[in-house]
Structures are given as structure tokens and as C-alpha cells.
Design brief:
By secondary structure, the protein is of the alpha+beta class. The protein has three helices and seven strands; from the N terminus they run H-E-E-E-E-H-E-E-E-H.
Length: 165
């Protein structure tokens, strides 16, 4: 069987599987609690980005780093309320070795894994880590589904090729 004998469905499912394989293989997962760095300060700026404005980016006055809170971590309204509360001291745990900025942005934006507002825990590391891990398992399930469909379409293409010859 030649590549030219493959259907568009087979090619699409193989491409999807390869993309998912790279995503699953190169995902570092959630860093351990010990790898995270804590910083505290007051809010300098805040912006809600994304289709549903559920990706929250912000910077603390006392630090150079910029931070991002993704919607996958949950409790967006609680986090947004904690960020915009005037004069609040925020403490965040972040991974100093990870950046979630896009290649074209040319800036480092660190994902946060815990946020405390005026000594009140708003979202815990454990809760955020569980949400990220459930998202990782979805990637693995999608990879397996892509591989199953690839095999299914390859079998159909094989039968068609065999019937034609």
C-alpha cells in the first residue's frame, strides 16, 4: 500500500495522532510543590484574555515576573475578585522554569499554582494540580482515540486496495 492509496480520513487521523503524541510526550506535567517559588506583593496590572476572557494575566508591583491563571484551574470569578480587590497583598506560587507565553509575544509569563489574598487561600496547589492532571489524561485519551481511528481507516483502505487489485 502506497501513501497515495490512503484516504483523507486516514491521513487526517494519522496527523491528529502524531500531533497528540507530541503534546502528550513533551508535556512536563504539574511541577511538584517543592519546585515552586513563592512571591508576594500588590497588583500592578491585570487583564482577562481569551475567547471567554477566562485567562487571567497579571503582574505584581514588587516583582519583574508576569503571571497567568488559566481557566482549566477553575474558580475564575474567585480569582478575578481576589486580583481586583484594592490594596490586597497577594501571594502566588509559580514555576520559575515554565513560561506560558506564545512564541510571538517575546515575554515570559509564568503559570501560577496557588494564590492567597490577604492570608486567605483563594485556590490551593492541590486543587489546581488536580485540574491540570485531569486535563493531561484527556490528552492521553484523545491520543488513543486518534490511534484507534487511524487503525480503523487503515483497515478500510487496505480492504479497498485489496478489492481493487
Amino acid at each position: 500500500m502506497k501513501i497515495s492509496d490512503l484516504s483523507q480520513n486516514t491521513i487526517a487521523s494519522l496527523f491528529f495522532s502524531v500531533v497528540m503524541l507530541f503534546i502528550v510526550a513533551f508535556d512536563n506535567g504539574v511541577p511538584s510543590f517543592d519546585e515552586l517559588k513563592e512571591v508576594s506583593g500588590t497588583l500592578e496590572w491585570f487583564e482577562a484574555k481569551g475567547k471567554n476572557r477566562s485567562t487571567l494575566r497579571f503582574k505584581l508591583k514588587e516583582h519583574e515576573e508576569m503571571f497567568v491563571y488559566h481557566s482549566i484551574a477553575g474558580s475564575i470569578s474567585a480569582i478575578k475578585s481576589a486580583l481586583i480587590k484594592e490594596g490586597t497583598t497577594l501571594k502566588v506560587l509559580y514555576d520559575p522554569n515554565d513560561s506560558d507565553s506564545a512564541l510571538w509575544e517575546f515575554e515570559t509569563i509564568h503559570p501560577i499554582y496557588q494564590i492567597v489574598s490577604d492570608n486567605h487561600l483563594v485556590k490551593s496547589y492541590r486543587s489546581i494540580a488536580e485540574n491540570y492532571k485531569s486535563n493531561e489524561s484527556l490528552g492521553f485519551i484523545l491520543l488513543l482515540g486518534g490511534l484507534a481511528f487511524s487503525l480503523f481507516f487503515l483497515a478500510i483502505d487496505w480492504e479497498i486496495k485489496r478489492d481493487v487489485d
